[in-house]
């Protein structure tokens, strides 16, 4: 019962995020944004949908119980959810599930983006690991963690290339590298 409640809550959260992403996409496209990485986007959607399907099947079919370490895992999961919201709020209208880049836009360097270039991808990586571990779904945890690494090895370079091409991304991060050497 707890499993279905948590999965339902995460699915509702994802649907809300997709609504926000669609609204932000319209705003950005109206402002002249360009999309990059559209060829891998359907695979990313398939990966995330398959993750939830695999988690449901593994937990229900194999009657997985909640982990003995559930208190630590749920705490970490809730912290990742707070961090996810922090990312979303920090990017504001620039947050999206697609790679949409607004030419000549200033790169966001606030919130978690002050400390790490792609905090949302770290959060997704943590979720893909923590949710299955919470219910001892080790197959899903391992397989989808590996698939996520493969996806991010395509997505992050694509996103950085797009940002470097039409924003001040190079300037901001080259400047940050020089400052860190002082």
TrEMBL record:
Main location: membrane
Coiled coil regions, renumbered to chain: none
Keyword hit for Transmembrane: yes
Gene3D superfamilies assigned: 1.20.120.1630
InterPro entries: ICMT_MeTrfase (IPR007269), Metal_cation-efflux_comp (IPR052527)
Compartment annotation: Membrane
Protein name as annotated: Isoprenylcysteine carboxylmethyltransferase family protein
Source taxonomy: Bacteria, Bacillati, Bacillota, Bacilli, Bacillales
